[in-house]
Amino acid sequence: MKKNTFMSKKIKILLFFLLLCSFCTFVCAQNTYNFKYEVVKMDSTFDERADLTVETYMSHLKQEKDKKMDRVIGVSKEMLTSFSPQSPLSNLLVDMLFEWGNNDLLSKKMQPADLALLNFGGIRTALPKGNITIGDIYEIAPFDNLVTYIFVKGSELQKMFAGFTEIRNAPMANVQTTYKDGNLLSFSIGGMPLDHNKIYTLVTINFLATGGDGFLSNVNFESKLLTNTLLRDIYIDGIKKKTAQNIEIESKTDDRVKR
């Protein structure tokens, strides 16, 4: 008897939910929804209503950029170009790096650098004759390369020179190289032959220090020190210093490369 009573309660609950669902369906059916739409042309109709906030901001940034890039920082006596195995522009730039590196190392109470190394591929255009602007330097050095010190044993540094030819080489400071029939015949650092047991300090950029262009890809370092100084900033500061001394920018090829 109790079982039948329990079953009847379950049936009543089920019927209640069925009636509830039917009622909800009935109510929804009585409500009709009217949807409206219109075609909107995505054309110049909206130009007058455009929010100019971003456009104004971008225009301001461009004006500030142009103002900075057009700033004159020096004067070049003539156009300086870059080409292998050495050129006036590449000599100027790698010498600036070498000088800056020596001053920075001395300020850190460290031994001065022995040589500096760049790559011709990183020098993207010529330095024009006449006024030199910051924009000119950005065009010459558009990449955000950071100055890097490499401490390397002479026997390992030998591997870098072994890969050089008259066609495939790099701008270097405080290094003298001699080529014959397109091949590297001899080289010296600071006028001295390579000491295989000496630890040399090489000033370069992080791109080359991490294997870029392959010059140092098979060279084992004793240690490496990455700075937060951009190579481009060294060029800008170097030109500014010469300008402050009323010195015009000039450079030429010299006996660092002999053929």
Coarse morphology: elongated
**End-to-end Cα distance:** 118 Å
| CATH fourth-tier homologous superfamily | 5'-Nucleotidase, C-terminal domain
Instruction: Look at the helices and sheets and give the structural class.
Output: alpha+beta
CATH architecture: Alpha-Beta Complex
Percent range of helical residues: 25-40%
Order of helices and strands: HHEHEEHEHEEEEHEHE
- Biggest β-sheet strands, sense, barrel: 5 strands, mixed
What is the spatial order of strands in the main beta sheet? 5-2-8-4-9
User: Which fold does the CATH topology refer to?
Assistant: 5'-nucleotidase,  domain 2
Helix run count:
7
Regions with pLDDT < 50 over 5+ consecutive residues?
A: none
What is the averaged pLDDT score?
Answer: 87
Strand content: 15-25%
Rg result: 35 Å
| Overall CATH class | Alpha Beta
Domains (count):
1
Total strands: 10
Could you characterize what this model shows?
The protein is α+β, with helices and mostly antiparallel strands and 259 residues long. The chain has a single domain (64-250), classed as 5'-nucleotidase,  domain 2 (Alpha-Beta Complex). Helices cover 39% and strands 20% of the residues. It has helices at residues 2-30, 53-69, 88-107, 134-140, 154-162, 206-209, 231-244, and strands spanning 72-76, 115-117, 130-133, 146-153, 172-173, 175-180, 183-189, 199-205, 223-230, 257-258. The strands form 3 sheets. A 5-stranded mixed sheet has the order 5-2-8-4-9. Helix 3 crosses helix 7. It is elongated and about 110 Å long. The model has no long low-confidence stretch (mean pLDDT 87).
